[in-house]
Write a structure and sequence with these properties.
Largest sheet: 4 strands, antiparallel
Order of helices and strands: HEEHHEEHEEE
Structural class: alpha+beta
Strand order of the largest sheet: 1-2-4-3
Distance between the termini: 65 Å
CATH class of one domain: Alpha Beta
Helix content: 25-40%
Number of strands: 7
CATH architecture of one domain: 2-Layer Sandwich
Shape: elongated
């Protein structure tokens, strides 16, 4: 004999099975509902690139447009200026490069590295940025955006 009370252990497993049976079935994967709008890029002359739906993208990913603008400017190495709901780059930038950079921002500053959910927010703790997940509660540090 192992010295364990099997009745207590059996009761525990029975309770556990009952609790699992009452849980709702898993829903559709979180990623399937999250689709960032494609940037609508417009070129003005040879030296300006305009993202027409910039504010819509920032709102969809629940991030401050100024933070997203700073990130895109740094990653694409082009100065930018907000213009209403649009973002104007003072350089000609390939549309695919803009899309890839936005995807990279979402992967790094929006998607939770623990559960893969997108219901997150950025909070500042002292000088650090923390990605706080509203789904699983995880807090993950992210690199600062300068």
């Amino acid at each position: 004999m192992s010295g364990r009370d099997l009745r207590t252990e059996d009761a525990y497993y029975k309770m556990l099975d009952e609790a699992y049976s009452k849980l709702p079935e898993k829903r559709v994967k979180v990623e399937s509902r999250f689709r960032v709008p494609r940037p609508q890029v417009f070129y003005q002359g040879k030296s300006r690139t305009i993202i027409m739906n910039f504010k819509e993208i920032a709102e969809y990913i629940n991030r401050d447009p100024n933070l997203l603008r700073k990130f895109l400017s740094r990653e694409l190495a082009a100065p930018s200026a907000p213009s209403g709901d649009r973002l104007v780059f003072l350089a000609r930038i390939d549309e695919q490069a803009i899309e890839n950079t936005i995807e990279y921002f979402v992967k790094r500053y929006v998607r939770c590295p623990v559960c893969g959910g997108y219901d997150t927010r950025l909070i500042r703790v002292h000088k650090f940025l923390i990605l706080k997940c509203d789904i699983c509660g995880a807090e993950s540090p992210v690199p600062p955006i300068k």
